[in-house]
Amino acid sequence: MIFSNAFLFNAFLAAILASFASGMIGSYVVTKRVVFLSGSIAHSVLGMMGFFVYLERVYAFSWATPLLGALLGSVLSSLIIGFVSLKFQERQDALIASVWSIGMATGVLFLSATPGYNTDLLNFLFGNLLWTTQSDLWILFALDIALFFTISACYRPFLVICFDERQARLKGLRTEFWYLFLLVLIGISIVLLIQVMGIVLVMALLSLPAMLASLFTRTFFAMMLVSSFCALACSTLGIVASYELNLPTGSTIALVTAIAYTTGLFLQRKVFSKKTNH
User: Fold this and answer.
1) Most distant CA pair in the chain, distance
2) What count of other Cβ atoms lies within 10 Å of the Cβ of residue 6?
3) Contact (CB, 8 A) for 102 and 47
4) Residue 26 counted as domain residue
5) Euclidean distance between CA atoms 157 and 169, whole angstroms
6) Is the pTM of this model over 0.85?
């Protein structure tokens, strides 16, 4: 069925590529406990994206593409939010929420001021896997390759700041640099994933499969592998279910992923309680 339908086949390929990216970067998001920060970065980039759409359509600046605006916005937001979380931890929640809301509000204002029917906001929020193009697949493939080599090269410092940042600081590791670098990497990954999958599905795949994998794995590398395959399984099941039931693909995958995590959490607690009783 999937291989005979071009739309479903492209959606399946996108799900494979996005699952590995989500598994790799999502494990850091969950382990470092920056899900809220990642959500703020993801929503705040709408401001720069809306500004670039405005420049492109109103002033005919051909270089001002929404993707470029979103990428610049993600780097800027990551650095601002990272600096805030490092320097003003007591005000972290309020300041991150401010960046989140300001970015979203600015983006909506620019998009509303842009002439013509605008679908950028809906695509940004919900995406549409069934409209995945060849260029989208190449972007996701490039993201997977870039993440693989970057994480391979920076595996140890990333791991240290996720598990024992204080000890890393005592040993002379530049923890602030690595923390900001990790947030920028997360931000760029989110933007590239959003182009195909939408923010709702991306946040689900970045957090829930990694949280599910953490319940049943003991090493970080195993967590990344299990998280990737969990994301792939949920995405595949969601695509098939959405096709059979005529439901929105992204929302169906997000729901399947949430059900999978809830089921895994229940099974893990049940197994733990049995061991405790024995």
Assistant:
1) 71
2) 9
3) yes
4) yes
5) 11
6) yes
The CATH number of the domain holding residue 263 is: 1.10.3470.10
Count structural domains, the chain.
1
Instruction: Write down the pLDDT at residue 117.
Output: 54
Task: Determine contact, residues 224/27, Cβ cutoff 8 Å.
Answer: yes
Q: Is residue 40 part of a domain?
A: yes
Question: What DSSP string runs through the chain?
Answer: -TTT-HHHHHHHHHHHHHHHHHHHHHHHHHHTT-HHHHHHHHHHHHHHHHHHHHHHHHS--TT--HHHHHHHHHHHHHHHHHHHHHH-GGGHHHHHHHHHHHHHHHHHHHHHHSSS---HHHHHHH--GGG--HHHHHHHHHHHHHHHHHHHHHHHHHHHHHH-HHHHHHTT--HHHHHHHHHHHHHHHHHHHHHHHHHHHHHHHHHHHHHHHHHH-SSHHHHHHHHHHHHHHHHHHHHHHHHHHT--HHHHHHHHHHHHHHHHHHHHHHHHHHHHH-
102 domain-assigned: yes
Residue-number span of the structural domain to which 79 is assigned: 6-277
pLDDT 10s per residue in the chain (278 long)? 556 778 888 889 999 999 999 999 999 999 998 888 888 888 888 889 889 988 988 888 888 888 899 899 999 988 988 888 777 765 667 777 888 888 889 988 888 888 875 665 666 666 778 788 899 899 999 999 999 999 999 999 999 888 877 777 777 788 889 999 999 999 999 999 988 888 888 999 999 999 999 998 989 999 999 999 999 999 999 999 988 898 888 889 999 999 999 999 888 777 666 655 55
- Is 1 a member of any domain? no
Do the Cβ atoms of 44 and 122 come closer than 8 Å?
no
